[in-house]
Amino acid sequence: MAASSTLPQPKVFRKSQIGKTGVLTLSGFGIKVRMQRGHLEIEDGVGIDRRTIRLPRVGHGLKRLVVIGSDGFVSLAALEWLTAQDASFVMLERNGKVMCVTGPVRPSEAKLRRAQALAAGNGLGLEIARSLIDAKVRGQELVLRERLNRQAAAHVISDFRDRLASAGTFDAIRVVEANAAACYFREWRSIPVTWPKADLPRTPDHWRFAGSRQSPLSGGPRLAVTPAHAILNYCFAMLEAESRLSVSALGLDPGLGVGLHTDTANRDSLALDVLEPVRPDIEAWLLDWIENEPLRRSDFFETGAGNCRLMSQLCIKLSGTAAVWRKLVAPWAEYVAQALWSRAQSRHGDNSVVQTRLTQRRRTEAKGKVWTPSIKLSRADHLCRECGERIIAGRTHCGQCAVSSATERFIDAARVGRETANGPAAQVKRANTQRQNALAQHAWKPSHKPTWLTKALFAERIQPLLASLSASAIARQISVSRWYAGRIREGYRPHPRHWQALANLTGVSQTDK
Predict the structure, then answer these.
(1) Which residues pair with 92 in a beta bridge?
(2) How many domains does the chain fold into?
(3) Is the dihedral of CA 346, 349, 355, 359 positive or negative?
(4) What are the angstrom distances between the C-alpha of 287 and each of 12, 56, 395, 455?
(5) How far apart are alpha carbons 478 and 462 in whole angstroms?
(6) Phi, psi of 379, deg, nearest 5
(7) Domain shared by 35 and 152, yes or no
């Protein structure tokens, strides 16, 4: 007699399951990473959703193996396989703490290590720290000006940045960086975070804003209580792991800082120094995400103490950004290595430079080309505004919610007697708007426009920068609809009365001609 049912068998993926980023994220209970018949066999997941992946030595595409959690094992043979394949192993916690990072390490140069050890006391570390924090504060200023349109706060950040030139000690640099960060994240508190309509009843009120960077649970950024800062903490953990791998690949000691972060036990001070200029890039990426797409309640959960944690699916998606942060931190790691090497070789009159094995910059310049980092940020999932399901770009609702929403609008309009979009009330409102625009155009004179702000300059300098901004930011700057702002992003040239405001938004001034 045949069995009425069979037990579910684990799915075995014999083909490579690695995406273009080269990152494979493991989560769940009983994680296993081991060698079986010359293949790297990986098993993870929970319950019936467990999976088994077998990777050969050729054609797997694995660059980073990220493990979220602490239940499972990794065999020594598996670590040897990862090392032979130039792949790295990263172990993270959901709260943004780096537990373990291993990866290929190049033989170190004794002169370079000696220069690194002496940098904090001979003035070189102070120069490096000032350059790193200057880049970070400059990035924060750009985020405030271009993403948030907070010009007053941006001016304050600019003043703090000017003080870096006269900062003669590490403590002075830390004070400037701390004051700038406090002013910067003060503008984050009221940033709204959207959620699908179906998730709002289950979403805490304080989750609807980015909130304070300082968590009431820890007094610092750790143990975030809002989703926005929980995402930041996890991405910063990925950045810290990539920074550690980058400085190790250049032959530096990731735990021996240049003086910006004090050397303490169980902390990679140099890795934390190098990643500082990249933080504003992650923050700008997150702002663009929460400004254009809603978050899903199913991607987060709240502990009994109020700590906001990330679910596995969101962690897997965020781990896929590791390749982007690796490309952003690589030039800064090479800058620190070159600065240390230049000081080490100066006594001997040798002008040799450190190999740019992370960016391949010297190879590109040797071919007569200008090196520029090719970085493409990943896009967030486009979600339905009602139920939160994933939909294609260009739509705001899934098919089912679109029908339901249209039906509700029709019923509400019939109940309260509202007019349709082409009714008399709508036509009067449209006519008033057109009248106001016509009066504004009539009152504007060509003499109101600066002489340097020509049609050619707008087309060559300002218009390309507008394509990288959001329609909401353009609409707020010149007080127009998002539809009209979207046309401007696509290349439409607006009325000249808007050119000055758009130039301010993009940061183009008379001195930039």
Answers:
(1) 68, 98
(2) 3
(3) positive
(4) 38, 39, 21, 31
(5) 14
(6) -95, 150
(7) no
Residue identified by tokens 């065999």 is 75
Provide the token pair at 479: 């007080």
Residue 4 lies in a domain: no
Q: Render pLDDT for 340-365 as a digit per residue (tens, 0 to 9).
A: 888 766 555 555 666 777 777 777 76
Q: Is 168 exposed, middle or buried (0-12, 13-18, 19+ CB in 10 A)?
A: exposed
Q: How far is 308 from 50, CA to CA, in rounded Å?
A: 25
For residues 241, 242, 245 and 248, what is the CA-based torsion angle, rounded to 10 degrees?
-100
For the residues of 387-440, what is the DSSP string, one character each? T--B--TT-SS-HHHHHHHHHHHHHHHHHHT---TTSHHHHHHHHHHHHHHHHH
Structure tokens at 25: 């994220």
Residues 88 and 138 in one domain: no
Cα–Cα nearest to 238, from 206, 285, 203: 285
3-state class (DSSP) for residue 67: strand
Give the whole-angstrom CA distance, residue 20 versus residue 24. 10
* Domain-embedded: residue 416: no
Cα separation, 343 vs 124, whole angstroms: 8
Confidence of residue 136 (pLDDT cuts 50, 70, 90): very high
Q: What is the pLDDT of residues 225-239, one digit of tens each?
A: 999 999 999 999 989
Name the pairing type of β-strands 72-74 and 98-102: unpaired
Kindly report the pTM of this predicted structure.
0.71
- Look at residue 410 in the predicted model and tell me its pLDDT: 58
Enumerate the β-bridge partners of residue 66: 25, 90
Q: The domain that contains 34 carries what CATH number? A: 3.100.10.20
- Per the document, the length of the chain is 513
Give the C-alpha separation, 179 to 169, whole Å. Answer: 16
